[in-house]
Amino acid sequence: MRLDVSDLHVRFRTRSGAVHAVNGASFAVDSGEIVGLVGESGCGKSVTARSIVRLEDPGEITGGSIEFGGTDLTGADDRTLRRLRGRELAMVFQDPETTLNPTYTVGEQIAEALRVRRDPDDQPFLRELFAGVRSRVGSKRTRKRVLELLGEVGIPRPEDRIDDYPHQFSGGMRQRVMLAIALARRPSLLIADEPTTALDTTTQAAILERLATLNDEYGMGLLLISHDLGVVSQLCDRIVVMYDGVVVESGPTRELLSSPAHPYTKALLGCLPGRSEPGETLPTVGGSPPDGSPPPAGCVFVDRCPFARKDCREDSQPTLNLEDGRTVRCDVSDAREADLETMRVATAADPIDGPGPDLNPGDRGRTAAVAVDGGVETDSPTDSTADPSGSAVDNPILELEGVTKSFRTTDALVDRLLGTAERLTAVDDVSLELRAGETLGLVGESGCGKSTLARVIAGLESPTAGTVRLDGEPVDDVDSRRDDQLADVGVVFQNPGTSLNPKRTVGESLAEPLLEAGWGERRRDERVEELLSLVELSPEYAGRYPRQLSGGQLQRVAIARALAVEPAVLVLDEPTAALDVSVQATVLNLLERLQRQLDLAYLFVSHDLEVVRHVADRVATMYLGRLLEVGPASQVLSEPAHPYTAALLEAIPDSEATAGGAGLAGEPPSPTDPPSGCAFHPRCPMADDDCATVEPTWETVGDASSRCHYADERADEHDEN
Amino acid sequence: MSERHADEHTWRSPDAVLEWLRERTRSQFAWSLRTNPGVRFGGTLVCLLAVVAVFGPLLSPYDPTAQALEARLEAPSLAHPLGTDALGRDVATRIVHGARVSLALAVAATAVRVVIGTTIGLVAGYLGGLVDAALMRLVDIQLAFPGLVLALVIAGVLGPSLRNVMIALSVVGWASYARVVRGNVLEVKDRPFVEAARLYGTPRRRIARRHLLPNVINPVVVLATMNLGTIVLTAAGLSFLGLGAQPPTPEWGTMIAGGREYLRSAPWLVTAPGIAIMATVIGFNVLGDGLRDVLDPDHLEERERRRS
Ligand code: SF4
Ligand code: SF4
């Protein structure tokens, strides 16, 4: 069945006036087609999706139509809607935590969906009362269907899991259950709102593949909503780009990505770190994102468009049809035809918000040089004795030696979560070092211990074994660190929304570390202003509260606070994971500049390999608390010697629309009970009998070292290719 | 890292305070306060009561305790809008004076509860471990006794007087504050901004005061507002039983107790203080409910979810 959204308008009434979320969006999804709806947060894509299944509350549809299989959903009555939602239209939400009912087993919840398909008008209230009497998974036939569904979405050993409750599943598995519930209805259209955003790259790859198969096998249409161009381009036949509640461009994936026509699409693609050379300044989208005020008469993108002309502002832009079924909403042919390179120049020349950095073009080469240096001076972590240069300046600022962190799981809360009382080794015998001016990228799936390692370095946890050395001196947790040692390490957390005290102004938050360091009031105020200009924010931000700032601005403030007392090392824990791509680009540029300006060492923790490839000089891969591979980014991320790094790289959804790899099967085993031998062997495609028993040692491969029995062979393979 | 710096930071100049106030009144927060029906209605009632309690006694021509036996049990009239009681005292004047007594007592007892409860909750939640376990057992014990009964016992043991009622009411009610504060502290203390404060070496005491307290205080405000109403009611109840204010002190509970015998002949003796108590309780409760909607949006969301 075809979905046809035309000229949809959705508005929210809030205390501070109406917010115009969708301002005339039009697009269609043919039956059996996969369409991606992309745009940054606040562009109205989720509201559009929810409006299609008529969950737009508390918004209201103020205009336009949504036709699905010939029925106009905007005017449909409850009965029709119920029937459609029960059989034809299904939706999967971003957050599987809150959309599964914690009090029923997953089997029951899927069976419920099956029942709804059979009889959408049946109100389950009475049956609900008998629920206790009869197991809700019910008849054998239903149970069999449920098992099939669980298998279909890729849950291993469904018979064992069918009677489990949602909390016994991991995030990725829960998302699969949600998918099974949606699929139980055999919908002709599935709307998936950011289905993989909360998940790891590897899990994400698995779920996306599952969606593609389902589309293939059952001809199920799919509307995939995402802010991630990579995800969308891997799966979709067509892409629809939304900005400020309006569709600015749409077209077949390949054409749209290779020659985007709308300046916004170009800007968005340009921001992707994967599209730039490592270390290069990323193009950004200047200006500020739309704020839900009534749309301008002319082009919605006019305030941020480098090609904007006078009439762009006044004249409503027509939707032009280009060849190969593409549409674009921009009437300026120069803008449409400009290629990505010109766009890049145009945006780079554009001042970013706040006082611009004086970028010296000659500087750019330097970062690349550092990358090479980093490669040369990398030595195997197991024998960190020889330092080729040996000079005092080159001593590592931060050294980890056999750092291990384990948690007692007898602690009531953890106990409940895991159902065990063992010791959980989150970080296992990690040795690393970090020098001034260098960026070390720490990558791995969630739960691999990378965040714990970051916390140990920051001093929020003290290591169970091994030593952390700052400037050559061993340190423990924050309570025992000296003031100058505290000042040496700055930390930036993942979620900028919670890393600032909501009750204190930006200025107060920035002044806190200075106050603790004993600075006087005058000096503090000066420094706060200095810090704000360092992160390209104007001084008046000092008086604002966090809730008045956007995500990107908050992250800038968080970075400024981390820099307040002039640290030598900055620990960045997924600093851009919660940000939109265009904002991510500005934050990455900022970090790059600060590093150069202040000669900082970064420990950059991230699950996003594209970002790490862009910023890191050296990369360390972590799995189940252990390091598996360490080496220069240029080598490790292009010719990985370790199968795990290779699998991570394969799982990256590729925005160049080439087929993405299948990624890794399964999930990491529980860290309370790590596998014997090579920890990675249960999931390793190259594993043999040796791997299950003998723990591999560090092998040196080129400038990197890798913990795999077959690292050398893989390296040889790379050489041959 | 001495307290000196802390003081520099906490005490603002009057200008800064004004600026802060201005920011506050301009904000969305102030707007939602002003437009919330609960806050409006409850707030009006409470303000009226406060005005009556403060200025009423100054305006009234009568003495609340002086007896005028020639004017016993007079029905409401122009001279005595709410009539007179068995000893010829003007009921309206006594109600107005009673408002003072009741409100003062409620405010004082609530203040003690808030301070004790918040401190205990903050300490327990933040320090955790053994301290937490010990303090929370104390809270459990306190909550295991019905508040009114415990207050009765304490007031009974200490002997009947207004001061003892206050003491009794102060020591029984703090546990719910401790609970609420501890719960919120547990949630806030692992937020990155608290960790960030640890990272730049903020002493624990200052973290508690500067980062935890402001972020857990909203539910306390709500709870305290609702509590004011209950305390007025409980205090009146204790006085009614003869444990609280002693005659001739003008107190609503005592007045009801005194008017009981004349219920048929002079119903205003009971209805007037009864309505006063009711208005106070309703006022505070509605205000508290409104404040909760404004200060605690999570709760609102939850209600929304339950409704749909
Ligand atoms: S060139 Fe004009 S119409 Fe085209 S995107 Fe820019 S502002 Fe809009
Ligand atoms: S040692 Fe074996 S199991 Fe481990 S990564 Fe290498 S090949 Fe795979």
Give a written overview of the molecule.
- The complex is a heterodimer of chains A (721) and B (308).
- Chain A is α/β, with parallel strands linked by helices.
- Among the domains of chain A are: 98-184, 3-Layer(aba) Sandwich (Rossmann fold); 254-348, no CATH class; 435-616, P-loop containing nucleotide triphosphate hydrolases (Rossmann fold); 633-720, no CATH class.
- Chain A is built from 28 helices and 24 strands.
- In chain A, strand 11 and strand 12 form a beta hairpin.
- The longest helix of chain A has 18 residues, at 201-218.
- Chain A is globular.
- Chain A starts with a strand and ends with a helix.
- With 308 residues, chain B is an all-alpha fold.
- Chain B has a single domain, classed as MetI-like (MetI-like fold, Orthogonal Bundle).
- Chain B is built from 14 helices and no strands.
- In chain B, helix 7 (147-158) packs antiparallel against helix 8 (162-172).
- Mean pLDDT of chain B is 83; it is low at 1-11.
- The A-B interface holds A 15-16, 458-460, 478, 481, 483, 486-487, 489-491, 493-495, 498-504, 508-509, 511-513, 515-518, 521, 558, 561, 564-565 and B 1, 5, 8-9, 28, 31-32, 35, 191-193, 195-202, 210-211, 214-215.
- One iron/sulfur cluster binds next to loops of chain A.
